[in-house]
UniProtKB/TrEMBL annotation:
Protein keywords: Methyltransferase, Transferase
Record keyword Membrane present: no
Annotated GO biological process: methylation
Protein name according to UniProt: FkbM family methyltransferase
Occurrences of domain Methyltransferase FkbM (ranges): 96-249
GO terms assigned for molecular function: methyltransferase activity
Pfam family, one: Methyltransf_21
Keyword Nucleotidyltransferase: no
Amino acid sequence: MKILKRVRQSMIEGLPNRHFVQFTNGTSVLKGYSHRIAMHSNDNTMTVMDGSDKLRICRRDRLWLYKRGISARVNQLAESYLLHHISEPLQGAFIDCGANVGELGAYSRSKGLEYHAFEPESLEADCCDRNNFGGKPQTNRFGLWSSDGELTFYSKPGTADGSLFETEQYADRFQVKVRSLDSYAAETGLTNVAILKIEAEGAEPEILAGARKTLKSTRYVTVDCGFEKGVAKESTLVPVFNLLLDAGFEAIDWNPRRVTTLFKNRAT
């Protein structure tokens, strides 16, 4: 059975994009799923359509994330970062570090927050622009770090695991601009952050170290502290806790499955 499943999967993965989309839509009909896929031949991106909801994506091996619909995916992602525990009205900015195609932009808009997306992967950033900014290049195509400069980015877009630390089986590597969040905030006049979400494949402590001023005006921080740092796959849980406790935050919930933690500023 496992061999047949692998053969079937290999055959599906080998289909040209047009045939793959036809197969996927046919499967969705048979399984009673509401979403459908449209292929854009000019740039090989796809649009997931679910009723009135639409989302541009660029990796067909991530289509399974939307099998229950776009809203279900956004809600699942928000819950994985524990955002469903935030019930108070918020004002200000939603900082999305590691935005990918910008799915959480929908959450940000639902809360009336100003969306700031950071994504070094170019195709994902292009999709994020289409999903959140009407196609205008407003997604920040650089990495957040402890200081401004340039570093090597180890690209692994198929699994959304690109990192500023060398990882196993990365697809490509290239130089990217990096900036501290404090530097970005000073340049853009950002003075009120409702939620800072960080998914940086091991660079979470460095990002927090470069956000000391910004954290003073930040209400909530949610961080993926999973085992993703470098080839050794280390967790950043301890340094993240230490940095945020020192900055005046308290942990109010955590997700042991994804190793995400939600912090609240005690002073704001």
